[in-house]
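[Discussion] Sanity-checking designs against the backbone

I'm trying to build intuition for which residues belong where. Below is a structure token string of 884 positions. I'd appreciate it if someone posts a full sequence so I can compare it with mine line by line.
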């Protein structure tokens, strides 16, 4: 019998299967409801002190790991003590040396309640024997199998609240603990953890690795990895005084030769040295291991003493571009900066998530700008952070930087551009406001005051404010607690060739979310002259309208730009006279950073439906052949495609496509330009190809192993295959099989999965949508990678039946998937649509789900925004046709 289920019923069935049946024991009530409630966390922070964990685990290739944890703590006050645990089973236990015979009944699959009658005031010890799952996804211990040599590798991933899936613990960031780990593995394996390896005992084909007890750590930062890794270690003098620190790189054996070990070790060590000097606190965790983790779902994870990086972002299978190299460096600096902001001092609760993530991103740019001035790091910071931040903060789903959190189960919703991109931009504004020296002194004082402890945003601003001699409390209320962001419009009046009036008018991007009133802003305004030196004016915006009196009477400029240097956080919309000049001359602006920002402001005008997408596209077509900055050229190529392929109607796209293809081919073939610029042109041509002659060109490149003089290696070859398949190649299965014969690696298998997801076939889409939920062995990173292919905008009529089904899955996804997945899921789903019919489906679903959790509603509204803008922009400029 064949049972045909709708996409929604498929999700319901999968969710039921994966959630498991309820266990015998306590029913979740009060403090023992799923997750870690703010109420439970508050109770424990007053009840418990001095936590230590002695954790012993036995791991291998099996689907579970067995373990024992000895939890010691000081108890102050009466009542039960509640541990958090969501693993497979609790086997037996003891409290203060006495057997805990009712342990099974004390566990409700979320929490383990230690009865008050078994406890005493002062020091207590609880021992629990348990098992926990090991899986490709959905477990605290992630298992990957190397397709090249069949080796198995394991690593943990506990952020934000999966430590309690690994072992019974107090899983909240402000109950830091000293951790001693003992890990038993197959005999041929190596292992690493937060602490240094002190000894390894071998017996009966297994080896037990003993790691030194750590300084106080938050539970989400506990980590280990095990497998037949290769390792390279060297001693680095991290601090001017003290012994050298061992710095190691762990890589799986099949990729060891590809890894640039010396470069990566030096990069991490250099960051450790510089940051120790900047913060006035030497690296605090003894040794430093960097692990290149296969199928890792994030760019990196900052465990103290054991940073895990995404392997594919750190080992290149074809020549990397400048943007890729700078991105790898920025990721390294970000994770190393966490050793201070996040690890040494940790936020008290995940409502202050920005305190670690925003700071790490900001410090990565500060470090990069200092150590490598030629990198133009603040331009990179702008290009990587501001469009993403604005794209979220200007939506109806925006949130404050400080995001209230009632339960750690909801912490995944707090991850996203607000904390990763807005927060560091806000810190750049704060540093400009108080001055670099005062900012640094305040940060140093903050770290000294809260060493190995926890703190809040108020404590940080108090330290910086004290160093700067000013009260930052009002500034903090506006930037930490108020949702949304300002849009600033330039208004210029010129009389007889002189500036008669220059005003900066500020308004909220989302008044219904932000309320009224201006944000405090300090910016650097530039009056640009084509044949004279610019005039730069510092301006503080304190009200809705700011008169720039220092500009009055000066010669009329070629253009005005109110955020030179990117110190301010606001969407800056140029005045009409500036737009007219920039439309013809923006490519002549010699400063790469300023030019990038000018292009960005013009793009913001497109997104605000104040500038025709076709007009912006024509500006790019004229300027792109002259653009020599790799990062900006790649950005402009992407915006060119978006302008015509997303924001313009299909007729406009079809009419402009031949010219755009010719431009991209010419740029890719131009051997006088840098490799990165040529590669950006080539990649965009591949992604845009849809005419028969263009698709035939892709096949030629695939057969010949080269494209316009550029070698075609595995990543680009898979892009060619995926594009051909998305355009209904009749030999799709043969294309995938042929490429898999060439590339039988683990990464090749992932790329084949992504390519198959691109098939424009309703049965394929139905099967894949179901598999995303039913296949418990499917790695989460594979799912993330396949979303874009499944929701290809050119196949939106095929994927639209899954739009509502995808929204229905959100509670399950929040519960069962990692951080970032929820945003990727919604982003790919809604960005795969461009028509009003899809927008109507989303709005009807939101109207019918008034009881949807607020954090999930906000995520939907954030993702909805670009779909709404796309519809609005298309309808606003429906009558505009391209002109040469």
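Best answer:
Here's mine. Compare freely.
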């Amino acid at each position: 019998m064949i049972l045909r289920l709708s996409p929604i019923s498929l999700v319901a069935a999968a969710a039921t299967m994966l959630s498991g049946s309820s266990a015998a024991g306590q029913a979740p009530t009060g403090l023992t409801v799923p997750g870690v409630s703010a109420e439970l966390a508050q109770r424990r922070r007053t009840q418990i002190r001095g936590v230590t964990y002695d954790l012993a685990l036995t791991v291998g290739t099996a689907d579970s790991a067995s373990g024992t944890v000895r939890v010691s703590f000081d108890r102050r006050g009466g009542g039960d003590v509640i541990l958090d645990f969501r693993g497979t089973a609790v086997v037996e236990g003891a409290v203060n040396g006495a057997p805990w015979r009712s342990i099974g009944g004390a566990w409700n699959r979320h929490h383990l309640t230690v009865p008050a009658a078994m406890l005493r005031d002062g020091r207590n010890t609880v021992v629990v024997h348990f098992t926990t799952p090991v899986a490709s996804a959905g477990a605290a211990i992630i298992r990957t199998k190397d397709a090249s040599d069949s080796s198995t590798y394991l690593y943990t991933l506990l952020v934000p609240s999966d430590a309690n899936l690994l072992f019974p613990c107090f899983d909240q960031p402000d109950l830091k603990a000293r951790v001693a780990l003992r890990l038993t593995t197959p005999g041929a394996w190596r292992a690493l953890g937060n602490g240094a390896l002190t000894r390894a005992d071998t017996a009966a084909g297994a080896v037990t690795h003993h790691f030194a007890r750590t300084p106080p750590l938050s539970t989400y930062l506990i980590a280990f990895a095990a497998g037949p890794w290769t390792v390279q270690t060297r001693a680095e003098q991290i601090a001017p005084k003290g012994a050298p620190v061992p710095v190691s790189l762990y890589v799986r054996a099949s990729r060891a030769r590809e890894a640039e070990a010396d470069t990566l070790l030096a990069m991490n060590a250099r960051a450790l040295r510089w940051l120790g000097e900047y913060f006035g606190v030497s690296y605090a965790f003894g040794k430093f291991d960097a692990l290149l983790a296969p199928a890792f779902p994030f760019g990196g994870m900052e465990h103290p003493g054991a940073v895990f990086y995404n392997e594919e972002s750190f080992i290149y299978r074809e020549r990397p571009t400048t943007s890729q190299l700078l991105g790898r460096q920025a990721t390294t600096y970000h994770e190393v900066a966490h050793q201070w902001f996040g690890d040494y001092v940790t936020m008290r609760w995940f409502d202050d998530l920005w305190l670690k993530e925003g700071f790490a991103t900001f410090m990565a740019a500060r470090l990069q700008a200092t150590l490598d001035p030629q990198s133009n790091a603040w331009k990179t910071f702008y290009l990587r952070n501001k469009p993403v931040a604005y794209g979220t903060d200007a939506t109806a789903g925006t949130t404050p930087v400080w995001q209230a959190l009632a339960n750690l189960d909801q912490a995944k919703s707090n991850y996203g551009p607000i904390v990763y991109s807005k927060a560091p931009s806000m810190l750049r504004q704060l540093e400009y406001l108080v001055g670099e020296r005062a900012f640094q002194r305040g940060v140093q004082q903050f770290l000294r005051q809260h060493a190995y402890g926890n703190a809040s945003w108020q404590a940080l601003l108090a330290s910086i404010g004290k160093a700067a001699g000013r009260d930052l409390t009002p500034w903090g209320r506006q930037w930490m607690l108020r949702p949304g962001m300002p849009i600033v419009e330039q208004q210029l009046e010129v009389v007889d060739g002189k500036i008669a009036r220059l005003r900066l008018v500020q308004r909220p991007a989302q008044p219904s979310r932000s309320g009224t009133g201006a944000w405090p802003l300090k910016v650097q305004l530039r009056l640009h002259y084509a044949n004279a030196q610019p005039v730069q004016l510092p301006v503080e915006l304190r009200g809705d309208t700011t008169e720039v009196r220092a500009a009055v009477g000066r010669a009329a400029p070629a253009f005005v730009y109110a955020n030179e240097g990117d110190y301010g956080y606001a969407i800056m919309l140029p005045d009409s006279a500036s737009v007219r000049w920039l439309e013809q001359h923006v490519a002549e602006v010699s400063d790469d950073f300023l030019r990038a920002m000018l292009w960005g402001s013009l793009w913001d005008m497109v997104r605000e439906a104040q500038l025709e997408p076709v007009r912006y596209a024509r500006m790019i077509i004229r300027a792109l052949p002259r653009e020599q900055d790799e990062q900006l050229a790649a950005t402009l190529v992407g915006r060119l495609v978006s302008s015509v392929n997303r924001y313009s109607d299909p007729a406009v796209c079809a009419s402009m496509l031949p010219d755009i293809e010719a431009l991209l081919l010419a740029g890719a073939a131009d051997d006088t330009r840098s490799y990165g610029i040529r590669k950006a042109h080539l990649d965009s041509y591949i992604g845009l190809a849809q005419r028969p002659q263009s698709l035939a060109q892709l096949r030629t490149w695939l057969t010949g192993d080269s494209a316009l003089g550029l070698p075609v290696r595995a990543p680009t070859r898979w892009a060619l295959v995926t594009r051909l398949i998305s355009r209904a190649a009749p030999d799709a299965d043969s294309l995938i099989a042929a490429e898999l014969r060439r590339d039988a690696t683990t990464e090749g298998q992932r790329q084949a999965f992504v390519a198959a997801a691109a098939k424009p076939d309703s049965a394929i889409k139905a099967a894949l949508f179901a598999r995303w939920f039913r296949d418990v062995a499917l790695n989460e990173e594979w799912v993330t990678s396949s979303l874009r292919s499944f929701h290809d905008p050119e196949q939106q009529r095929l994927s639209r039946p899954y739009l509502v089904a995808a929204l229905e899955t959100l509670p399950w996804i929040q519960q069962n998937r990692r951080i970032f997945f929820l945003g990727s899921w919604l982003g790919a789903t809604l960005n795969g649509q461009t028509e009003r019919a899809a927008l109507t489906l989303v709005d009807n679903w939101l109207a019918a789900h008034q009881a949807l959790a607020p954090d999930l509603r906000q995520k939907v509204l954030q993702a909805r925004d670009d779909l709404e803008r796309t519809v609005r922009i298309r309808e606003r400029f429906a009558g505009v046709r391209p002109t040469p």
